[in-house]
Amino acid sequence: MTELKLARLPDRNPVKLAIAVMPDLHSALLDYAAIYAERYGQQEALPELIPAMLETFIASDRGFAKAREAMRSDQSRK
C-alpha cells in the first residue's frame, strides 16, 4: 500500500453535549459574548463560543497536557 505524508484525518463528527451552568457563569458567558462582539465586530452565539473557549483553556493547561501524555503512555504499555 502507498504511504502518504498526510495521516488519516481524525473523526470530525461533533458530539453534542447538554450542560447546565449556574446563573453567575451564564451571566459571565453572556458578558464574554458581548465583549467578543465589541472587539471583533461580529456576534457569535454562546454555543459557538463555548467550544472554542474550552479548546483554548485545555490547550493552555500544561499540567493537563503532562498528565494526559503520561496517561496515554501508560495505556500504550498495557
Automatic annotation (TrEMBL):
InterPro entries: DUF2274. It holds the Pfam family DUF2274. This is DUF2274 domain-containing protein. It comes from Rhizorhabdus dicambivorans.
